Amino acid sequence: MKKLTFTFIALCLATQLASAQQLPPNKWGVEADLLVPFVPEANIITARVTHTIVGRPGAAHGDLLLGVYLRPNVTHDIVDKIDEYLLTAGYRQYLIKGFHIEGQVDTGWARGTRNKIDGKDYENFTVLVEGHAGYKFNFRSNRSYNFYLLPQVGVIQGAVTDIGPRGGKSDTFLSAKVHIGVAF
Question: How many CB atoms lie within 10 A of CB 126?
């Protein structure tokens, strides 16, 4: 009986100690934008992998961002249809808790079909530069991963783009995004 009681107490203590340990930080993440794919004339699909490269999650830290920016055959205000297939690279710096700023460069290929001013098709190398600020809301689901929601606002600038005459329309855009992701 004493042996059984001792074993039970030891098991209870071991369970308490294990649950009281600090959870390891999640250094990797995968995220996609929930908002922009459904905005008319934007319809941009983005997905990224994140990895903490400076500091540690839970404190001020920095994440490397790598991903894709896809805009397949979308109705556009400058051309009848636009196709953009870009790779993205960026950096997100967390300042306090979930508050962060990030910069990103998107490079790849774009095609504009029938410009609405000159009627020509355009196909070229494209570079976009993005800057955003936002807050990351973490929803811990278990010990090995957690879900998060990351709303952001910012600006996107066409650094190297050519889909023909723009008719005075800017190549700088205000941006709002809502990323959903999982960190592991």
Answer: 21
Q: pTM (2 decimals)?
A: 0.84
Element (H, E) at 110: strand 99-115
Give the chain's mean pLDDT. Answer: 88
Nearest to 167 by CA among 76, 86, 82, 81: 76
For residues 21 and 32, give the distance between their C-alpha atoms in angstroms, rounded to a whole number. 31
Cβ-defined contacts of 82-86 (< 8 Å, 24+) = 82/110, 82/111, 82/112, 82/113, 82/163, 83/110, 83/111, 83/113, 84/44, 84/108, 84/109, 84/110, 84/111, 84/126, 85/109, 85/110, 86/110, 86/126, 86/128
pLDDT of 6 reads: 46
